[in-house]
Amino acid sequence: MNDVRKDIETSKYVEESSEIYPETEMLKKRLEWFQDLKFGVIFHYGLYAQAGIVESWQLSEKDTWAREGNPYRETIEELQIDYWNLIRTFNPVDLDATKWADLCRRAGFKYCIFTTKHHDGFNMYNTTETEYKIGGKLSPFKRDIVKEVFTAFQQADIAIGAYYSKADWFSPFYWLDDATIKGRTASYNPLEHPEIWARYVSFVHHQIEEITSNYGSIDLLWLDAGWCRRGKEDLQMDQLAELARKNQPELIIVDRMMGGRHENYVTPERKIPELHEIPTKVWESNIPIGNDWGYVPHDIFKSSQELIENLIDVVSKGGNLILGVGPTPKGAITKEETEILEEIGTWLTIYGEGIYETRAQIKESATDWRFTYQKNGKIHYAFRSIRQESTIFVPLVDIKADEQSTIKDLATNEILTIYNENGKACISLNEVTCPKHGAIGLRITKGGENSFENAF
């Protein structure tokens, strides 16, 4: 899919910096908290759901890939006019944020990132900076969606993140109202027109102040549009971060793909790093449940089996995973996505002990087992996909155990018997519960449950 889509920016991240900033100590604690969460959801929701197309991307004349095979309109002029006018018909009357939050809680998500504004410039909250917003004069839906979503997820004890695009293709200070061929970047050179760019920077800063002031406690500010960076499109990130943290002093900021001070953790998109690619910074893989982030009719969804395997793989490598969900134009979560999330949640209810609040010890493994570790190092967990070739006896060395270990089936909490099979200490998978979806899971206490002198 990455070969088709061209919306993934190249990361400017090289390696973790040792430079000390005023927020460094705070972030050290907060990123430990973030790594405990492990599993989150990201909602891409806006006018593009009504259009049923790949987020905002068809608006950009230079991003021809987005219109290939499924153009919203035949000409770019007609497309842009009709898309901008979707504000008049986008009316998600079935949106029930409490139901969203309840589903996400049951799915096992510990944090939620919601799109306050995508590149198209349509605001999903009650900004005073523009009327191009949900609940505005032209919008039939007179509610603040961000407020409803943030409130519902806060009440469900799910941490909150605000997605915000640093680009705004509707803003007259980003895309000028002229005949210039428009691409994802500003349609003029900000260095040649500093007075226009200054108005855009002010617009962005005011919106960040609104988002961080008016919606209660926010844990994450997830800034997208990785082409907006120091140089031509300098958004004065030091001042922006200071402004945001004035209202949210423990805010984690993710200036995606930028590297440096304000990319507090990194976000590999649509991929899980191989062992040699694992960042030294805290990281989070982001993967949509379907092919697209937002709602597209007849999308093809990944199975719960694949996504559980993705989660185990990511966590065993030290990362977090967010899954992308795209609600329908009416504001519902599709039946397919609901079933997938419920299946993941069923598995996590049983096996989540080996996922949440764990850490990784990243090593090459010659087996098909994946491992996570309690932070105190005394207990580790071994997972094996139910799709792996079936065997009866598993040598203890394959699950990093020995004959002094206590090995339990996570599903039943029953201690497994250690056998001698062909001169090797083994466990029998006949004694291990096989779930309908996902992976089997074992809890391994090295040296026995009450003996930690030789803790793993």
TrEMBL record:
Enzyme category, top tier: hydrolase
GO biological process: fucose metabolic process; glycoside catabolic process
InterPro entries noted in UniProt: FUC_metazoa-typ, GH, Glyco_hydro_29, Glyco_hydro_29_N
GO cellular component: lysosome
Listed GO MF terms: alpha-L-fucosidase activity
Glycoside hydrolase family 29 N-terminal domain location: 14-353
Pfam families attached to this UniProt entry: Alpha_L_fucos (PF01120)
Keyword Zinc-finger annotated: no
Enzyme Commission numbers on file: 3.2.1.51
Entry keywords, A to Z: Glycosidase, Hydrolase, Signal
Keyword Aminoacyl-tRNA synthetase: no
Membership in a protein family: Belongs to the glycosyl hydrolase 29 family.
PANTHER family linked to this entry: ALPHA-L-FUCOSIDASE, ALPHA-L-FUCOSIDASE-RELATED
Role according to the record: Alpha-L-fucosidase is responsible for hydrolyzing the alpha-1,6-linked fucose joined to the reducing-end N-acetylglucosamine of the carbohydrate moieties of glycoproteins.
Stated name of the protein: alpha-L-fucosidase
The organism of origin for this protein: Enterococcus villorum
